[in-house]
Fold this sequence. Notes:
Elements: H1 2-12, E1 59-64, H2 70-82, E2 86-91, H3 93-102, H4 107-112, E3 116-119, E4 137-142, H5 144-152, H6 158-168, E5 173-177, H7 184-195, E6 199-200, H8 214-227
Parallel strand pairs: 1-2, 1-4, 2-3, 4-5, 5-6
Helix pairs in contact: 2-8, 5-6, 5-7
The protein binds flavin mononucleotide.
Amino acid sequence: MYTLFYEQTAMFCSVSKRRISSSSSYSCSLMSRTSFESSKSRRTYASTPDHRPLARRKRIIVAMTGATGAILGIKVLEALRRMNVETHLIVSKWADATIKYETDYAPATVRELADFAYTANNLAAPVSSGSFHTDGMIVVPCSIKSLAGIRTGYCSDLIARAADVILKERRKLVMVVRETPLSDIHLENMLSLTRSGAIMFPPVPAFYTRPDSVDGIIQQSVSRMLDMFDLDTGDFERWEGMKQK
Ligand SMILES: Cc1cc2nc3c(=O)[nH]c(=O)nc-3n(C[C@H](O)[C@H](O)[C@H](O)COP(=O)(O)O)c2cc1C
């Protein structure tokens, strides 16, 4: 119902509401933006006189789970924002905890980086349906628990459901699975999902760029993750063969 309402209203309105909480619903105004839009809002749709939507911005679902590496998800959101990609963010309860524990960001600030944000228990969100078009999904960081949920198709939260939808619709799913060392259970889950079309992208740093800071390692990793969606951040050095020393 949410999706139907969203798609119908999107045809007639310029919708660019930035955030949706678990309890809120979509709303839009023909002439003005919603009161809870921030000044950072960007227009999502334009419509023709006969109400057909024009080309939309690229749209990516970003899911953050409770594996260590919350900063990776945050930097992905910041990069997508710079590239004017529409983001739909899902944050699990334990991702909130790791954001607070590992970074200087408040969870609310992280949500503000996205165009739309949902709690993981909001199974009525648009990204819960395949009829809501997206260009893919990245789970970053991805916990072993969420990996297992997605592998089995056990859609107990919005992260697993949205990923399940991505797979059934044959869209792109990138999973930044973070654990070490890996058991056969982890590896089997990753192999199974790879065979289903997902891309396993553990956050393994490259050292050939001689990174001089953790920030450099994060930037390179994030850029390579977004390469998977044919999005070029343009802010890291690509391998062009060995240079003379
Ligand atoms: C500080 C911290 C770091 C964690 N790091 C990892 C990790 O790297 N990988 C992992 O699979 N789980 C990790 N966990 C455990 C997950 O948070 C836990 O399994 C949780 O149930 C995941 O749920 P979610 O996938 O719904 O976020 C960590 C937990 C905490 C508190």
